[in-house]
Specification:
globular, 1232 residues, 10-stranded mixed sheet, alpha+beta
């Protein structure tokens, strides 16, 4: 192929007109602490600091690059294009001369030109090697043009290219194979990769199939492995999980399936453990599910419930921490030492315990604090969760590492409109029906409108799921002969067959604009589209893939994803409102030129290199799709479109610039003509990607097809740190609208502030000097102001310095360590004064009410959300949909775009937006209602409470809380002391036979009846086993004598499983045991703790039997039985019964119900009819007119976990190892 030069001159190199400079890249948290720092970063001078930070922090190869390189001298490759190898000889020589190790002579990338060289050089090398260029001069032009475009931010490939491409070609990096495959271009055979880097993984987007199989190839667990290979190299993946059986569907070996959702949670956890690309980027995946799946409702509401869990974790942790502090204060603040640990006598403690019970705090924590206080502890560390999107709270719940989408076809949408039923089908029924050639029988019927309501509510509440319109997607499918499109990549822009991949690149539209006229330079756009289509095609050739099937199909169909960024900015700088007919026409025309030029280039490559392998069997459908693309460019009548139910939106010629429209229609004709003559090299060529990171790298103010999120934004980064992002397109837009330089300056300063203390009202250098601020401290503050989103973020420990804060400002460690403490408030500034200074220094962040600006120009600067604290304007959801609808007919895949909706929108608004998207011919829709997440990565303003005059005295939040590791750490150390048993002691001996093996269990007790030792003897067992059991009994005895509660041993050892086990004889209450250890602690729990849920025969049944009739005339046994039902320690139970003075008297739950009960009433509460005194081993927990929280509380009081059984719905779940087991029906929550 011939490559023309448009941006470079032969022999002058790619950077002739570009100046480079060295910078420092520092990423800071809002509190000023440094996350990462990188010195001597060389980048083009015109790059912003944000772009510099992206290059340095994300895309520079940080380690492992050999210091010395040599040419590989590959035959047939020009000298300037030769791969490089590690020059071990030079490294060894230098190591000898410097007396150091050769292994230490590895460096990192520090110059952007190094990155441009390894990318462009690698693409050129593979293209030249496989005859993509007619001559070496064409290859050289290709290399130079690419380097120039990368340096000038004209285009950028997807992140995996930056991470992986060229590491072997440029530096000779290598490593063991990671299980990848590639197709040999010469033999066209799928071949396992021999190493990790010779062939990079440049593809960002994957769609992978999954079978309804647990562990075999292509199954569920295999998918997690394939996903891990992708995440490691920075790629994302999507899958349709509709083939997986729903919950309770039968399994082939008997039993029932645990259901789709259980496996999705496993996959989500696996994805969350991997840093994508080895950096801080999170793993990305898409989960698609057909609307007829039996678990569709659980899937729809998945993230709604997870968001609720985060809210509960945050609120609960704060509540529990506060109550723990109050419990310690109540205990240690009570003057009478003999009463301070007694709930009945210590009224302060009783009051806090009541508060804890009302707050549903686990009562074990009340016990714990009392016991710790008795031992001398004064506090425990109980950390709090926060709602930061990268915090432990979000990491603790499921569903945070995937986007969810429901696949809806036209039949469903019509059923919603006509209020019809919608059928759900078991997966095994669909398989059987297909084999038998019949229609499947539904397992359940729903009202389509009700399911539609659930989808809308979930999207309103949690921003998930999105919707993919299955019928529309497949009517634009170029290769239906090979199967339907069932899923997409994580961001929904790539939609094609399962087990295929797509690599993306985006053109920065602002760099293809004539700065003098503002018009698009069509010749440059065509040139850029052609060059980058070839780059993406070569990337298919050189790539390795995570599975054999993906390698085969990706090579066969060769799908590409060329797109653009900065459409919103292009419109703004030309003074065109995003929501206007002119904007729609321009967007459609620009998209069409890029799309049809890319297809024309694909046809050109097909002429030289041949069509993709699947072209002939899909030729008719592919040409049908191309003709429909062309019709949209000419805005043909609806009757002319082929095979489309919903007709696309064409380009409005009345509002499109004539030259742009002419170019659009010419390119549409050209692409169809070349395709009909030569076919196409690629099944797909375009997709509008989100361009989040690469958009920042190209200094784009807007991403993809989006309008700006806000004029000033605050972006948190995964892994820590943040960027302050300001829309730099405002000044040129104002000049385009006719404003003078002085007016533009005033407007810009109104929006983004002056970034200096000088001239600020209330808070300025002069005022701060009177409060002790030195010139050095003021200088440090001034340096931080340009990147500050709020001045509160600058006045912190890290910026001011610890010595200054303590010695000059008089702050103590507690204040400095409190993230809710405000230094500005401490200095005496009011909320209004801080706000006024903030508007001057950091700006109002909105265009509204700006000086000089005419109201009729407000719409030019409208954003997806309200801007700043004072902004009221935003782009309506319908405008987002109209913009997507005019671009979609010119995209092979789809458009990754968020439709932003204001916080006050309701569920009906969500449904309207979804319906409008379907009727407009969109392939997918993702809505985001502001505030639907407890935290979001991109924010337009700090929380409103910062400006509340009624804020609490402790101050305002001056920084985001740090990530918390959930742990409980005892502050004060306790040295255990051994409590000796009396020489003559009571106890009992219990004989039992377990699985045919005879066992004698003997206990020894203290005077108060508390167990202090056990003896275990096995009859006729081998010496080794008997000795082990004897040693085990000694260890348990020592633990009991040193104060380890029997409850701890019971929880640790019950349900352990090993032989001998089985039937138990000789014991009245225990009839089955999973091991000898299980039997021992069942017996001790029943006898000493009253844990009758571990018994197989309840005490009631024993009392009613003829064998035990001698107990019927001894009513005190009833009382004893009732008391033992409480989940108290034996020591507490005995103390309660004896009511000994100066001893801990136990927890009386009646005291928590009534303020001042009499002792007689207290005992009455624990009578045989008490809520807490009834037997619970087999009783039903289903009660009329009782709240769930009451049932949970009662269950916990009776010793259960407080969770309901998923099988029998009883609240009788007990801990069973790491799982839960139901004492009523025996069902478990896990594998046991």
């Amino acid at each position: 192929m011939k490559i023309k030069r448009m941006f470079t001159m032969e022999g002058e190199g790619p950077y002739r007109s570009i100046e480079f400079e060295n910078r420092t890249s520092v990423i800071r948290n809002p509190d000023g602490s440094i996350v990462s720092e990188w010195d001597n970063v060389s980048v083009p001078k015109q790059w912003s600091q944000v772009a510099t930070d992206i290059m340095a922090q994300k895309y520079f190869r940080k380690a492992g690059i050999p210091k010395y390189l040599k040419s590989a001298k590959e035959k047939g490759i020009p000298a300037w294009l030769q791969p490089s190898l590690h020059d071990q000889a030079r490294a060894d020589q230098e190591a000898t001369e410097t007396d150091s190790s050769a292994e230490n002579h590895a460096i990192s990338e520090t110059d952007a030109r190094e990155v441009f060289h390894r990318l462009a050089g690698c693409w050129t090398y593979w293209g030249y090697k496989h005859s993509y260029f007619d001559t070496e001069e064409d290859a050289s032009a290709f290399y130079d043009e690419l380097c120039h475009m990368l340096a000038n931010q004209m285009a950028a490939p997807n992140s995996p290219q930056w991470f992986n491409t060229g590491l072997n070609w440029a530096y000779g990096l290598n490593g063991p194979a990671q299980g990848h495959f590639y197709v040999d271009p010469k033999t066209e055979e799928v071949t396992p990769s021999k190493d990790a880097y010779t062939r990079p993984q440049p593809h960002a987007c994957f769609i992978q199939s999954v079978k309804d199989d647990l562990v075999r190839d292509g199954g569920i667990m295999d998918l997690w492995t394939r996903e891990a290979r992708l995440f490691k190299y920075g790629s994302g993946t999507g899958s349709n999980f509709s083939v997986l059986r729903g919950e309770s569907e039968p399994l082939s070996g008997g039993g029932v399936s645990s259901g789709l959702m259980s496996f999705l949670k496993i996959g989500d956890s696996a994805a969350g453990a991997i840093k994508s690309g080895g950096t801080t980027r999170r793993a990305a995946k898409m989960i698609c599910l057909d609307a007829d799946h039996p678990d569709i409702e659980k899937f729809i509401n998945w993230k709604v419930h997870e968001e609720q869990k985060v809210a509960a974790l945050v609120a609960g942790s704060k509540t529990v921490k506060k109550l723990i502090s109050e419990l310690f204060a109540a205990i240690h603040g009570w003057k009478d030492e003999s009463e301070k640990f007694n709930l009945e006598l210590n009224k302060d403690l009783r009051s806090v315990a009541k508060k804890a019970r009302l707050a549903a705090m686990p009562f074990s924590y009340v016990y714990r604090i009392i016991h710790l206080s008795q031992q001398g502890y004064t506090e425990v560390m109980f950390d709090e969760y926060d709602t930061d999107w990268n915090s432990e709270a979000y990491q603790s719940v499921a569903g945070q590492n995937a986007n969810n989408s429901v696949r809806l076809n036209n039949a469903f949408m019509q059923a919603v409109e006509q209020d019809k039923d919608w059928d759900l089908y078991l997966r095994i029924e669909k398989v059987k029906a297909k084999k038998e050639g019949r229609e499947p029988v539904p397992c359940r019927k729903l009202k389509a409108a009700e399911l539609w309501e659930e989808i809308a509510y979930a999207a309103w509440a949690s921003a998930d799921p999105g919707i993919q319109f299955d019928s529309t997607i497949n009517e634009w499918h170029t290769c239906p002969a090979d199967g339907p499109i069932r899923a997409s990549n994580p961001c929904s822009e790539y939609m094609f067959l399962d087990d295929t991949a797509c690599n993306l690149a985006s053109l920065n539209l602002m760099q293809f604009r004539d700065p003098k006229t503002g018009e698009l330079d069509v010749a440059k756009l065509r040139h850029g589209s052609r060059i980058w289509t070839i780059v993406l095609e070569i990337s298919v050739l050189m790539a390795q893939f995570p599975s054999r099937n993906i390698a085969d199909l990706s090579y066969e169909f060769r799908t590409l994803g060329l797109g653009y960024a900065n459409m919103g900015t292009y419109l703004m700088v030309n003074g065109i409102p995003y929501d206007s007919p002119e904007a729609l026409a321009i967007c459609g025309a620009v998209t069409s030129i890029m799309h049809m030029t890319s297809y024309a280039t694909s046809a050109e490559m097909a002429k030289e290199l041949g069509t993709f392998k699947g072209y002939e069997r899909n030729k008719d459908n592919m040409l049908r799709v191309i003709r429909n693309h062309r019709r949209a460019a000419f805005r043909a009548p609806d009757s002319e479109y082929e095979g489309l139910t919903i007709k696309p939106v064409g380009i409005d010629s009345q509002h499109c610039p004539p030259e742009l429209l002419k170019a659009t229609q010419h390119d549409a004709n050209q692409a169809l003509k070349l395709g009909e003559k030569y076919g196409f090299r690629n099944a797909q060529v375009t997709a509008i990607a989100p361009t989040g990171t690469i958009g920042l790298l190209m200094d784009c103010d807007t991403t993809g097809i989006e309008p700006d999120f806000a004029l000033v934004k605050f972006k948190k980064l995964a892994g820590g740190g943040y960027f302050k992002i300001i829309n730099n397109s405002i000044p040129p837009a104002l000049h385009k609208l006719g404003y003078e330089d002085t007016e533009v300056s005033d407007i810009v300063h109104y929006i983004k502030g002056y970034a200096r203390l000088d001239g600020s009202p209330c808070i300025n250098a002069n005022v701060l000097r009177t409060k002790g601020f030195t010139s050095d401290v003021l200088e440090r503050i001034e340096k931080q102001l340009p990147t500050a989103f709020d001045i509160s973020f600058v006045f912190n420990l890290y910026t001011l310095g610890e010595s200054f804060c303590k010695e000059t400002l008089g702050l103590n460690d507690e204040q400095l360590g409190n993230f809710e403490f405000s230094i500005l408030k401490h200095l005496g500034f009011s909320s209004k004064e801080i706000e006024a200074a903030n508007d001057y220094i950091c700006g109002t962040m909105t265009i509204e009410d700006a000086p000089h600006l005419k109201p009729e120009h407000y719409s030019v600067f409208d954003c997806a959300n309200k801007c700043g604290r004072k902004g009221k304007r935003y782009i309506e959801p319908e405008a987002h949909i109209r913009m997507m609808a005019v671009a979609q007919p010119f995209i092979s895949g789809s458009i990754s775009k968020t439709i932003n909706i204001p916080n006050e929108a309701n569920v009906t608004d969500i449904k309207k937006a979804f319906s409008a998207s379907w009727n407009s011919g969109l392939k997918c829709n993702a809505l985001y209602r502001d505030g639907s997440k407890l935290s979001q990565p991109l924010n337009v303003s700090v929380e409103e409470y910062l400006w509340d005059e009624d804020e609490i005295e402790e101050g305002i939040a001056a920084a985001k809380p740090e990530q918390i590791r959930i742990a409980e750490k005892i502050i004060h150390r306790y040295i255990a002391k051994r409590r000796r048993l009396p020489h003559r002691r009571k106890g009992y001996t219990q004989k039992a036979v377990i699985g045919g093996h005879k066992l004698y269990l003997r206990t020894g007790e203290y005077e108060d009846g508390t167990i202090g030792e056990i003896f275990v003897d096995m009859h006729k067992e081998g010496a080794a086993f008997r000795s082990l059991m004897n040693s085990f009994a000694i260890a348990i005895s020592l633990g009991l004598q040193h104060g380890v509660p029997l409850e701890e041993f019971v929880e640790a050892f019950i349900f352990t499983r090993f032989e001998p086990n089985g039937m138990v004889s000789g014991n009245d209450t225990i009839k089955m045991s999973t091991s000898i250890i299980d039997y021992i602690f069942r017996e001790l729990a029943i006898s000493y703790l009253g844990r009758n849920e571990f018994a197989h025969v309840s005490p009631d049944e024993l009392q009613a039997s003829a064998v035990h009739t001698q107990n019927e005339d001894e009513p005190e046994f009833d009382n004893e039985q009732v008391v033992s039902e409480r989940t108290l320690s034996t020591e507490e139970s005995q103390a309660f019964l004896k009511q000994e003075e100066n001893d801990f008297e136990g927890v009386d739950f009646a005291l928590l119900k009534n303020s001042d009960p009499e002792p007689e009433q207290t005992h009455a509460e624990f009578s045989g009819t008490s809520d807490f005194g009834t037997d619970s081993s087999t009783e039903s927990w289903t009660a009329q007119e009782r709240s769930t929280i009451d049932l949970v509380l009662e269950a916990r009081m009776k010793g259960y976990e407080g969770e309901s059984c998923h099988t029998c719905q009883q609240f009788t779940m007990v801990r069973n190892g790491s799982c839960l087991k139901c004492a009523s029906c025996g069902a478990t929550s896990g594998c046991s």
